[in-house]
Amino acid sequence: MKRLVQGNEAIFLGALKAGANFFAGYPISPASEILVLAAEHASKNPDFKFIQSEDEIAAANAIMGASLAGAKSFTATSGPGFSLMQEAIGYGHQVEVPTVFVNIQRVGPATGMPTMPAQQDIVQTNYGSSGDYYPLAFYPNCVEECYRYTVTAFNAAEESLSPVILLSDGFVGHLNEMVDLGAIEVKVVPRSRPPLGTGKRFFTGLAHDEKGNPRTADAVVYKEWLSKVKTRHEKVAARYSDFEFKGNTSSDTLLISYGIVSRVIAPLASQFAMFRPIRIFPMLGDELREHAQGYKKIVVVEANDGQYACLVERELKRDVVKVPLLGGRINLDLVRKGLSEKLEREVL
Amino acid sequence: MFKDLLKLELFPTTWCPGCGIGQIMIQLAMVMDELGLDHTNSTVISGVGCTGRLAGYFNVDGVYTLHGRTLPVAEAVKLVNPGLKVIVVSGDGDLASIGGNHLLHAARRNPDLTVLCNNNQVYGLTGGQAGPTTPRDTKTVSTPAGAIYDPVNLQNLMKAGAKYFYARTTVFHQVHFRKCIKEAIAWPGFAFIDIICHCIENNGRRLGFNSAYEMLQYFRQTYKRAPDDAEILEPFEIGIVRKG
């Protein structure tokens, strides 16, 4: 049945659909609804475990422990909390822990503008922790997709054995839309690894060999491990190369946007071609190259100062026009104004 | 045999000759063996630092967490799998400094965890810097004129909670040490064992000790048993205080 569902609620229900049975988190706007829903759910369902942690560092490490113990685990936070979780995300990549981090972005840096919506953690999502790692991340733009891609994030986590990021923003997180979640068909990937208490394994944040024994000075072992993980991530990513493209033969310009911004600029589809990445990391290289072909100008409209635009520039190896929407103000008039300035013609 | 609980194929361990962590490993393995704890019913979780490497030598599923994060990981493991005995072994720097906030709140939430704290009063792995438990006036590489702060009082920290289990023992007093581990494992809540231990290479020699043996003799002479009904452990007393 169709009913009004909030973006954050859809994420929580998507997690349940995916089989999540552990949540740890620390209250932060605009993500707190997910923590509150998890607390309510845990109070009625003893099989669902919940910890309100002392801080985001504890929450991020708790979901690692829960996953190793056999749960499907997740947390939800916003920019400042996401920064505190970065070390644990790196740990999850080294130890190969399937889990999900939800980041409902707001304006930063630091405490920033609580809780105006933003898309300012794009680079942090891909590069926030130390070392080389290859995170998968998804960015839905509506309530229905929040549900669907939360399930995808859990599936990709089990398949890649890594922490997967689900990005949203304060706008979509608090958006209410009519949707029939029960009618959405999704596939659910089961838990991938036997839980703690079934073997003699060692799960370590140190570089290690196949058995888990620390190998902290062996470049060969390290490179083999990194290459194995990289290949696995590329394979899993290829299963979820999701994007949306609307060509426009009467236009010489392609607008790239994602999340809430793609909704806001939808009325411009009659004037421009549109590309929207959903699997935002790893970068949709081939897909971007293919669909950018034939367009003289590439414009990235995003609620940050050109974070994704720079990555697109690197993929396409050509200049990209940046239209940043800053300070939590995301509306069509500002986009029109920005486009008019940058393209040096009036965009209506 | 307690040796079955250890990955002997990885020996010699990463620790310096004379290091006290080997004793912690052996005593824990002996108690686990006595209690029938093995890879089917228990896990050992350790943090970063010399002590952090301990979990990797046990023949059970072990976790080596990030620095300071043993307790959030362990608490989640216990919550998800209540049937598992969860034993945390880490250093004083890991548990009381970088993990201090987690220690405070894990103790408050009182999950059924057994925590062995290797209290060697120094950051050994990084070369002998002062830690949260370093006594005042102690010279270390990061306190060349002597530590200017008083150390954290772990007993008082643990007793801040409505329920607590705090044991102090030393690596010299092995019978007492094993008794503490056994009672901590039996305790149905957060049980913390403060193990006075030695780091000869990166602390002891600077303090004037010539060998690990001399440090153990110092523990033998300095630490005395508290009365069984003690409600507070005086400095240099070993014993257990608890409230359920």
Notes on the protein architecture:
Chain A contains 12 helices and 16 strands. Chain A is α/β, with parallel strands linked by helices and 348 residues long. Chain A has 2 domains: 3-239, Rossmann fold; 244-343, Rossmann fold. Chain B has 244 residues and is of the alpha/beta class. Chain B has one domain (2-7, 15-243): Rossmann fold, CATH 3.40.50. Chain B has helices at 21-35, 70-80, 92-98, 100-109, 154-158, 174-186, 200-207, 212-222, and strands spanning 42-46, 62-64, 85-91, 114-119, 164-170, 191-196, 224-225, 237-243. In chain B, strands 2-1-3-4-6-5-8-7 form an 8-stranded mixed sheet, with helices on both faces. In chain B, helix 6 links the parallel strand 5 (164-170) and strand 6. Chain B is globular and about 50 Å long. Chain A binds chain B through residues 21-22, 24, 49, 51, 53-55, 57-59, 61-66, 68-71, 73, 87-88, 91, 195-206, 212-214, and chain B through 7, 10, 14, 39-43, 45, 48, 53, 55-56, 59-66, 69, 71-77, 79-81, 83-84, 101-102, 104-105.
Summary tags:
heterodimer; A: 348 residues; alpha/beta; Rossmann fold; 2 domains; five-stranded mixed sheet; 12 helices; 16 strands; 40% helix; globular; B: 244 residues; eight-stranded mixed sheet; 8 helices; 8 strands
Secondary-structure content class of chain B: alpha/beta
CATH topology of the largest domain in chain A: Rossmann fold
CATH C-level class of chain B: Alpha Beta
Number of domains of chain A: 2
Shape of chain A: globular
Count of runs of 4 or more consecutive helical residues of chain A? 12
Q: pLDDT below 50 for ≥5 consecutive residues: which ranges of chain B?
A: none
N- to C-terminal distance of chain B: 33 Å
CATH class annotation of the largest domain in chain A: Alpha Beta
Major sheet of chain A, described briefly? 8 strands, mixed
Q: From the 3D structure, determine the CATH topology of chain B.
A: Rossmann fold
Q: Looking across the biggest beta sheet of chain B, what order are the strands in?
A: 2-1-3-4-6-5-8-7
Mind telling me the C-alpha Rg of chain B? Answer: 17 Å
- Low confidence ranges of chain A: none
Helix fraction of chain A? 25-40%
Rg over C-alpha atoms of chain A, rounded to the nearest angstrom:
20 Å
The chain-level structural class of chain A is: alpha/beta
Question: What number of domains of chain B?
Answer: 1
Please tell me the overall pLDDT of chain A.
97
